[in-house]
Design a protein that fits this description.
single chain, 3 helices, 70% helix
């Protein structure tokens, strides 16, 4: 049982790493930054955040795979 638990822990760590690498946690990081810096007004919704992020990437392309 211990080896299964280690395997699951390793898999979860790898999955979290891949999510981070792909930017899946970007909205969570945005919210953490938004609340920690004390912005006034409401934060963007998740949908607004991703639209803004895609618009910025389209207007200022940087190195990316696709």
């Amino acid at each position: 049982m211990i080896s299964i638990a280690k395997g699951l822990k390793g898999f979860r760590g790898f999955a979290a790493y891949m999510s981070s690498l792909m930017g899946a946690d970007a909205y969570r990081k945005y919210l953490e930054h938004f609340t920690s810096t004390g912005h006034s007004g409401p934060a963007m919704t998740e949908r607004e955040f991703w639209r803004d992020r895609m618009d910025r990437q389209d207007s200022n392309p940087q190195g990316r795979c696709c």
